[in-house]
Amino acid sequence: MNLEFGGWYNPGTNWTRNGVMLHEGALIVLDTLVASEQASGYVAGPVWHMLVEDEPSRGETRSQPWFDSTGFTDSSAPLPRINNASRLLVMMASSHAEAEQGISSRMLWGKVKPWSLFTKLRVEPGVPAHFLTVLQPHRQPAETVAQATAITYEGSGAFSVRLAQGTVSIAANGSWSVARQ
Description:
The chain is mainly β. Helix content is 3%, strand content 51%. It contains one helix and 15 strands.
């Protein structure tokens, strides 16, 4: 997956989203935002809306925060599940150490109040900000999945992600590779 959005937030600000989904269901998404002069001082980053009833639980493994959410259903119908998973673990990282991860819940789109997971960073004009998100459907205890997951920023917009299945490398240009264990 490779998506590019020019003029995001304002003229001259560009956002690129690259991703890879593994056969087991893990989705790895790399967002890159290059702010224009008009966006100087803006706070930006990816937001993932989770339409679930209960607040996702939180934890931290090797200084990397994670969130775990139950069920992929609303009050009327279940959504498709990947490998019969009923939980989703989300880990996020950034190329900038000062980036923050968090969670909030606000009313959106008329009576819909999702839990929103986010990474945020005050952006500088012309300086690429890279954000990596790993979304893993699972059936194990969240701590077990989190312990088997590690995100490393390799520099120049590239990240490597260690998962139980192997290691995924993804670069800012969208190229990626998977090394299975």
